[in-house]
Amino acid sequence: MRILVIGASGYVGSRLVPAFLDAGHEVVAASSSAPRPERFAWGHRVDWARCDVTDRAQVAAALEGVDGVCYLVHSLDRRSFEDRDREGAEVVRDAVAASEVTRVIYLSGLVPDAPTQDLSRHIFSRLEVEQVLSEATSPTCSVLALRAGVVLGAGSTSFEVIRQLATLLVVQPVPSWLEHDVQPIAVSDVLRAMVEAFEDDRLTGSLDIGGPHVVPYARLLADCSRAAGLLRLRIPVVLVPPALVSAGAAALVAAPFWTVSSLVQSLRHDMVCRPGETWVPRDGRPLLGIRESMARAFGEPGSTPEAALPSDPSWTSTRVPVLDELHAPATVRAGAGLALKKARTVLGALPIPGL
């Protein structure tokens, strides 16, 4: 199958493309910016397309000659992300309807068991994109949304927010709503689910994908501190609204402000897979657990899909070379590193040596 990966240069896309290639598929790698094949070890093995999902001409051109579409676009890095994500989904839906595409898969997010009006903007937007893309379903084209919660791996936005908070805060306040459950999944297993889904077009609608463990968010934070070899004190606190925590977390970590704010607002719900509507690997291999996934995330760059890659955003890096000679506790070095990365984000990626 010839698969168009929209969002190929992003976190999941940069790891999914080689998984598709290893499975015998041809890949067209698409991103909204000009192609830069040299950034990726697999860059010379694929065709490239520039594809802003809100540009109908670019999307139509990218779809020429492909059999399947893998849609990985999420625009959390801006205030009005819902509008852009909806518009992009509508453009892709219309282009698919006018093409020869036979399979569309969207990486969505877990949807909690809550009234629609209670969903966070982030979750509601993912669900809305699902619904728009599902309208591309026809007798010749099947559509599937794979719903994932926290994706474990260096470079994953949700994991990086957890990692940076776990590393930076010696004393970690734990609001009562952080006792909601989460079912994280290793990025290796996300890739496995995506590859399998393209090989079985009987899977349609939506399917949840999650790892083998369900834990409270606070436990996930603790496991991340442990994986980093850090001792942290967690103190329960009450009456702290998610909006306040999201603003504070966004100020502390190096990720884009609107990304962090939107993700933290989603923590007020249980984010677990639906019984009977959850992906089960066809090959029978066990799913990676939380601790093994985190150990891989802190491992040698490029050694596993969970480990960091050179193509990951600079703000996700686990080390800052200019601070390697700083004789100070790990927390101090981590705090200084995050401050430098945050400054670089705000100042527009100025060439700070060693970052």
TrEMBL record:
It comes from the Bacteria. Gene3D superfamilies: NAD(P)-binding Rossmann-like Domain. Signal peptide: none annotated. Pfam families: NAD_binding_10 (PF13460). InterPro entries: ComplexI_NDUFA9_subunit, NAD(P)-bd_dom, NAD(P)-bd_dom_sf. One of its GO terms (molecular function) is protein-containing complex binding. Residues 7-111 form the NAD(P)-binding domain. PANTHER family: NADH DEHYDROGENASE [UBIQUINONE] 1 ALPHA SUBCOMPLEX SUBUNIT 9, MITOCHONDRIAL (PTHR12126:SF11), NADH-UBIQUINONE OXIDOREDUCTASE 39 KDA SUBUNIT-RELATED (PTHR12126). This is Uncharacterized conserved protein YbjT, contains NAD(P)-binding and DUF2867 domains.
